[in-house]
Structure formats: structure tokens, C-alpha cells
Amino acid sequence: MTVLLAEQHGGVRTLTLNRPDRRNALDRALWAALREQLAEIAAGGARAVVLTGAGGAFSGGADLTATVDVEEFPDPAEEMRGINEVVRRLHELPVPTVAKVRGPAYGAGWNLALACDLVVAAPDARFCQIFTRRALSPDCGGSWVLPRLVGLQQAKRLTLLAEAIGAEEALALGLVTWVRPEAEIDAFTTELAGRLAAGAPTALAQTKALLAAGADRTLDEALDAETRAQAVNLTGPDVLEAFAAFLEKREPVFPGANGNAGVNVT
Question: For residues 107 and 160, what is the distance between their CA atoms, to the nearest angstrom?
């Protein structure tokens, strides 16, 4: 079985975690497939990404049946470095990303969803930082992203107690962007990803990078970074198309020729 399905329509690449018999638990093969796909996308393989799971689950988290065998897991730090590369690539991907979540998104699975820019959840979605129940601490970026999204106290509640929460509570906490009925979630996500893919690639990449770094910058540093980013935007072909479309009263069709290589907000 192919553990990661990759399907592309237009500029949208859909990545489907495909171990439904294991609730799409993340094993070495799946991590490796994600690393490969994200590297290809970062090199210009798509203009938007949807990450989802097969069989009514997003992901139950790490596949513990693969990690409890010491012979198969001799160096935990080395194992984590390979996993961290997937998380880093997903956070830093210059194209917009959407997680489409049905059923459980637990542990590392939830943190992969949180690494996406936007999260669309079905009403049956369940989220849990399950790590402490397994005598583990958060990984896959959970300790970094949760306090930034919900504040320190709620992050402590979610991680220390490892409580499972539903889609509506996740929405109220700002951990989900939209909750859509089961009958609508596919069409909604497809339309959303299409809108993102139709956007100006460099401007979207610049915007993502500015927001990701903004929390750790002073106002002056942020203004300087915005100036550098806008200088890149104003020298590329997308802005010419945007201005022409405005004057001609039509929707722009962005060539994206300057692409991700133009990102410069450091």
C-alpha cells in the first residue's frame, strides 16, 4: 500500500495520509514520504497544498507499534531529527497549506495539522495532545505552536491533561479555522485551496514568512522586513498583472514567474 497518496489538480497538491487500518498512524515510511513530497512542493511543485487522511481519520499520531521495539528505534534523538525535518518543511513551505480534518487528530497528527496555515474540520473531528498519556512530552512543534495560538495556560491544559476536545471547542480556541458539515467539507476545502492557488505566489510566500517571524520582532524590525518583502513584490510580474486586472475590471491571472525564489524577509 502507498502510505501517502499525492494527487494534483491544477496548482493544488492533495496529500492523503493513507494507513486507514492504523488510523493513519505515522511510521517511518510515512514520514519519509512526507519529507519527499514537501521538498518537491517547496521547489515549485504546487501553488497550494491540502493535507488530509484516508478512511475517516486525520491521524492517530505516531505509530507506537513501530517505536516500542528497541532494535527498530535505537537512537531516539536521530529518529526525532528526521521527523523534525518534516515539521520544519511544512511550517516553512512557501505556498499556502490547508489541513482537512475528519475524525481523530492526535499527538503528532494534530501538530501536523497545526503546522498548516488553515484548518478545516468536520463536526466529528477530535483533537488531543495525547503525549503525556503515553509517558511522552509534546513533539512535532506542539510546544512552540500551541502557546502562540491559545496562550500559555490553555496550552498547559491541553498538554498536561491530554484532554481530547471536539471541533467546536477547537474552533472557539482558535485551533481550527472553520468547521463544516460532513456533506460540505470536501467542496469547501476544494474551493478554498483553489482560491489560494490562484493567488500571487510570491506575495503569499512573503506574507507567510512575515507572519511567522512577526511575533519575535520589534515593530522597527517588522517594518524593515515588510519593506524588503514589498520591494520584491514590486519588481515581479505578479504586481503588474494585479494592477492591469484592476484597471481592466477582471480577475488577475498571476504568472508567478518570480516564484518562491524572491522571498526575502530575513
Answer: 13
**Residue 100: closest CA among 122, 120, 125:** 120
Residues 194 and 9: their CA atoms lie apart, in Å, by 9
| Radius of gyration in angstroms for the set of CA atoms belonging to the chain, rounded to a whole number | 19
The Cα–Cα gap between 6 and 257 comes to: 24
Query: What does pLDDT average to over the chain?
Result: 92
Q: Which amino acid is at 257?
A: A
Q: Which one, of 155, 100, 110, lies nearest residue 130 by Cα? A: 110
Name the pTM for this structure.
0.91
pLDDT at res. 258: 38
Q: Quick check: 94 pLDDT over 80?
A: yes
Whether the Cβ atoms of residue 129 and residue 159 lie closer than 8 Å to each other: yes
| Main-chain phi, psi angles of 149, to 5 degrees | -90, -40
Q: In sequence order, which residues have a C-beta less than 8 Å from that of residue 84 and are 6 or more positions away?
A: 139, 140
- Strands 97-101 and 48-53 turn out to be parallel
